[in-house]
Amino acid sequence: AVLADVAFFGAGLRWPGWSNYFWVWLAIHNLGFAWRDGRMGNPGQLLIMSLLALATMWVLVFPGPYPLAMVGSPDQTLSNTTPPKIILLALGIFQFGLLLAIEKPMRQALMNLRLWTATVLVNSMIMTVYLWHITVMIVFIGLLYLAGGVGLGLEPGTVSWWLSRPLWMAVLLVLLLPLTLLLSPLERISRGDDLSDRSPLRQVAGAMMICLGIALLALFGFGGGPLPGLDLAALALIAVGSGVSGVLTGLR
Fold first, then answer.
1. In the Cβ-directed half-sphere of 27, how many Cα atoms lie within 13 Å?
2. Rounded CA separation 15/251 (Å)
3. Which residues pair with 84 in a beta bridge?
4. What tens digit of pLDDT does each residue of 91-119 get?
5. pTM greater than 0.85 (yes/no)
6. Predicted confidence (pLDDT) per residue in 11-67, tens digit
7. 3-state SS string over the chain?
8. How many whole angstroms separate alpha carbon 81 and alpha carbon 219?
């Protein structure tokens, strides 16, 4: 991942950076296995790890060339997410270490039945929240833009910008709640058959087709590819991959 970023910033080579979809996310993915195996250390060590990751992020952004925004980009040529950069790995380590440092007191707090019930309830619809929270935010920002840009002129990072964040989050929560209640039952659709009896080769092949389709859409969008109909081909890959892996046929 570091070499891919060096090639990007040092030599202007963009293509090695796309391999960071594998390197960066695989590293963060493996943090979960390390936690599950009990290899992450004690809370003090985790807190130190988190602070070191935060310091690394500061160096990468302010003396370094990385954008401040972890999601999105200041222009079309520079983004922390497209393709992923090592600063996202530092961000993941920072958040991971911070959360695990307070794991023990949080587990004790969740012994409270009401708090545990609320946690289970929210997690039963968490995928809906994940899939739709950006859509709600974009629609809301679009409406504000049409209304003359109300609340959109604040400079990010200023005191007034930070003071407005609680209001923003409260409004977006109110807007997201009814949509979540409407769509979350889709998370509990039962499966008509057991996917465990499907060939691993089919599941891997289907997953690769889905990932390729999503990658093409992320890279070129709709109508912006070098070949005509590339967006339709990407959608077809996702649909066919879902069928091959059994995702579509497994739902009823």
1. 17
2. 37
3. 81
4. 999 999 999 999 999 999 999 999 999 99
5. no
6. 888 888 888 888 998 999 999 999 989 888 899 999 999 999 999 999 999 988 888
7. CHHHHHHHHHHCCCHHHHHHHHHHHHHHHHHHHHHHCCCCCCHHHHHHHHHHHHHHHHHHHCCCCCCCCCCCCCCCCCCCECCECHHHHHHHHHHHHHHHHCHHHHHHHCCCHHHHHHHHHHHCCHHHHHHHHHHHHHHHHHHHHHCCCCCCCCCCCCHHHHHHHHHHHHHHHHHHHHHHHHHHHHHHCCECCCHHHCCHHHHHHHHHHHHHHHHHHHHHCCCCCCCCCHHHHHHHHHHHHHHHHCCCCCEC
8. 11
Q: Residue 10 corresponds to which tokens in the numbers above?
A: 């040092």
Total number of residues shown for the chain: 252
Structure tokens, 198: 């499907």
The label of the residue with tokens 């999601």 reads 71
d(CA 17, CA 84): 7
Q: What is the rounded CA–CA span in Å between residue 133 and residue 226?
A: 31
